[in-house]
Amino acid sequence: MARKRYPDVRSLEPGLLTRAFFDSLRKLDLRRQKENPVMLLVELGGILTTAVFLAGLAGRSGEPPLFTGLISLWLWLTVFFSNFAESLSEGRGRARAASLRRARQSITAKRLRTPESTKDIRVVSSADLRPGDLVVVGPGETIPGDGEVVKGAALVNEAAVTGESAPVIRESGGDRSAVTGGTTVIASEVIIRITAEPGKTFLDRMICMVEGAERRKTPNEVALQLFLISLTIAFLAVVCNLDPVSRFSAATAGTGIPLSATILTALFVCLAPTTIAALLPAIGIAGMDRLFRKNIVALSGRAIEAAGDVNVLLLDKTGTITLGARQASEMIPVDGQPREGLVEAAYLSSLGDETPEGKSIVEFASRIRKVPVALPEGARPIPFSASTRVSGIEHGGTLYLKGAADSIIRSVQAKGGTVPLDLEAKVTGIASAGGTPLVVCRDATILGVIHLKDILKSGIRERFHDLRRIGIRTVMITGDNHLTAATIAAEAGVDDFVAEAHPEEKLRLIRDYQAQGNMVAMTGDGTNDAPALAQADVAVAMNNGTQPAREAANIIDLDSDPTKLLDIVEIGKQILMTRGALTTFSIANDVSKYFAILPAALVGIYPTLSALNVMGLSTPFTAILSAVIFNALVIPLLIPLALKGVRFRPIPASTLFTYNLVIFGLGGIVTPFIGIKLIDMALSTVVHL
Question: CA spacing 20 to 30 A to 549: which of 10, 115, 541, 583?
């Protein structure tokens, strides 16, 4: 079935641009601007130069009002472009959250006292539900809140949350019991125990995260911002000291004019790392948005960043690597028995079996021979029990059974039957291959063996190969015996496996890897995975898993596809690479701008500095103005790169460092020389300064 995705919210949609424009103007409020200290100082510089410009219009300033006015204008535009980058990134998240918010609206709920009191129903608002409340939800009704199915099974449409058009089964007593508020029951009726407070549901958390409203800065982002602030303070100190130095030098030489407030402000803005400071907030928010487009919700910005450094991935087998439901893959008759008789007996013994395994046997047999999928008239089903370990039906005086080998053997021998000589070899062969053997008999005759196989999820081997290429070690954890685990591990292509593992073993394994200095990611979907998910650096829970698993995780995969970790890692690396690339470009940019603005600013006091005018800029005023204009324009030009991210390629770190140094470092040095020169030529033609 075709995948239904959320509408792609593009960066250049008119409505999005309009909202980002007005939001950028609102962010000029100094109280909001203080979240970005570098841009706060640029805005204060814009206020100062605006005051100087107004004084110049009144004849109270010695600088040309046109020069001061243009400098002031471009300083304000520098701050505006910075706000615009962040607003555009936030706007895409808000647009995506709109459909989710519609699913969060208050609805009515049918609350019960006990699971058995289905006639004692009280209709309440979903806002009045509290953890522990029981509600009954029937066909066509919306699930009123996050919870777990405690009775029944139903087909649920989760498109409002996951974007997936194909409905899923939610049932009690397993790892598929968790349901999300806002989704709709299509068929059957279930009783749900509410597990989340109103306003604190999974849907609420999704909305907050995709909007970016509760996105906390990651450690890497905080460290980079501290570095930028330190660099900015250093340049601010240099510029402030230039004022008395220029006054002293001008007075001593008897020539030249001390640096004005406008020139000092322009000098500071061009020297400070304004480019990366302007784009830094947008990079992290855009990363979360890219995850959401892949149907992955990050409940922590730190988790995405940590994903970029993951080198060990632990995966639960059942429901994560495999489909979680064993399916019939082969029917093997014993010597002397026709295959047709085995297929018929396996089919009849499974007609009354409502388990996924029983249904798969009926389906498998039906593909071999076309038969009606219904109990024959007068047939008596024999349900599976822990004591007998068999199931089947009695029909027309004949007993058809399937079950564990030892149980079927006892049943047959009790009726005077014999055990085929080749049965043990066939049973052992299936078990050795990682499968589950079910022996089938008709009355006192053993007919053969059904091979139940835990099916791998589609494409998982190829994805594990991709993870290995980027340096991530995959480890499968399962409670199965060593033989079965080894078979599944080989078939899936994981690097290592741990068999007969308990929840405590998973937790210990993660701690051991972390103690060795590894960044560990864990994927899981069951309640028994929750402790390990809580310990892992990156915890990815399947959306179809249990509530405890989802609450312990910091990333939720709405598609319940464990191989999505590759996407999470790539986006995490993209964020780190994008920050690194733009930081390199920004610092290299500043080096080039020194050759434009320093000679122009100081040539009046130190004429020999004219030798540094390697760009051949027209006048000191056009040189300074050109540098300020370029400094502002480079921000919107880099917004698409900040939102899209640097393309991830699985290459060694040393090669990547060299690539960034050459492309963004060298590019950051060369681009200003070309850009400032072109702007200077245009200014010299249009204005006279």
Answer: 115
